[in-house]
């Protein structure tokens, strides 16, 4: 029972740390007002990396051994652990899926940042079709919050590109 208690204490510390990671990941992001759409992709790539690392740790043999010992001891901490394991898996899948969809927009980000206003406008229909495809097919990124954030960043980039064009001309 002493071993079980020590292992439960370790798992409770992990649970507290994982809950903190999940809470921080759900908090509102603070971003500059004029940030472009490539920042959205970078955000989700970073989040994917964090959650994949966390998943790798949870799936490690050391953690699996501790969890199996606690299962054999019928520990009550496992209910919380399993719930958090599921939440981490969902967050990792969301980040991976969002990166996959946002990569379809990546080809537009360069021209959007460097083009003249006329060339940029030629890209807009294809860009909007791709955004529409993401909205219609993504299981995670099709919320009004995500779409608003993305469209705001696209608009910011277009405005910045036009400002640069005007200042150079």
Into which percent range does the helicity of residues fall? over 70%
How would the global form be characterised? elongated
- The parts where pLDDT drops under 50 for at least 5 residues are none
Rounded to the nearest angstrom, the distance between the terminal CA atoms is 77 Å
How does the major sheet shape up? none
Please give the count of helices.
Answer: 6
Number of domains: 1
Mean pLDDT: 91
Radius of gyration, in angstroms, nearest whole number: 22 Å
Order of helix and strand elements from N to C terminus: HHHHHH
What structural class is derived from the secondary structure elements? mainly alpha
Organism: Rissa tridactyla (Black-legged kittiwake)
GO molecular function, one term: dynein intermediate chain binding
Protein name: DYH5 protein
GO biological process, one term: microtubule-based movement
Describe the structure.
With 169 residues, the protein is mainly alpha-helical. It has one domain (2-168). It is 84% helix and 0% strand. Helix 1 packs parallel to helix 4. The longest helix has 38 residues, at 77-114. The radius of gyration is 22 Å and the shape is elongated. The termini are far apart. The mean pLDDT is 91.
């Amino acid at each position: 029972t002493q071993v079980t208690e020590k292992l439960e204490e370790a798992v409770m510390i992990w649970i507290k740390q994982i809950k903190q990671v999940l809470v921080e990941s759900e908090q509102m992001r603070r971003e500059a007002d004029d940030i472009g759409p490539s920042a959205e992709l970078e955000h989700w790539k970073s989040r994917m990396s964090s959650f994949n690392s966390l998943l790798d740790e949870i799936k490690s043999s050391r953690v699996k051994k501790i969890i199996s010992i606690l299962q054999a001891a019928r520990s009550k901490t496992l209910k919380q652990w399993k719930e958090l394991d599921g939440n981490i898996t969902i967050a990792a899948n969301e980040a991976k899926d969002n990166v996959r969809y946002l990569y379809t927009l990546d080809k537009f980000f360069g021209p959007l940042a460097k083009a003249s206003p006329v060339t940029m406008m030629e890209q807009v229909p294809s860009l909007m079709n791709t955004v529409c495809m993401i909205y219609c097919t993504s299981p995670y990124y099709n919320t009004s919050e995500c779409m608003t954030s993305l469209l705001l960043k696209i608009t910011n980039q277009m405005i910045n590109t036009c400002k640069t064009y005007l200042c150079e001309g």
